[in-house]
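ugh ok fine here u go
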Amino acid sequence: MKKSESTKLNILHNGMAYAAAYGLYSISIGKIAAVTNMSRTGVISHFANKEDMQVAILAYTEEEFKKQVVEASIDEDALKHLNNFQQRWLEWLSFLDTVSPGQQASCPLIKASVEFKASPHCLVRQFMQDQHMKMINYLTKLAVNCQQQGYFNNALEPTIFAYEFYGLYTGHVVQTSLIDNPTLAVTYKKVVNGLIERYMKKL
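structure:
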């Protein structure tokens, strides 16, 4: 890997860590320069502008999410795949805590969707809209696979499952960012397992 590529990855990793702790909206060239021990000129040389850097940080975060959660969850058995995903998605928050030590980290992707809601035409908002649709489509596909393999009731709507699942997770992220209570993860698992149980075929 070239030095310039390694430097850019270091900027993006530190940017993800900063966004996990403080949010993407507050990120600036100066703040990223400070956490990477670089000059402002050194940081901006890798990006067209601040907004370009913010989008690049989100794209890097999305790729990390794919590696840590999506790819690590894959199983030919649809129900195992779904259960793997729900566990890995929960562990994603713990992973973010490791990259933002000493801070109560949260998902930069979810934070950004809220932080930039009043900026409908900015590139960050457009990126998040696309990312949101990919997530809903992915969750819908997990439910469809469970139906096709005979686990889920075919009379129930996979898109509704995706909507509920996503809503439960985002709610959990908000709660954990406000309340330092380790039992929240246990509660979240119970609620998600209850959701999955409602969609299972009844014997």
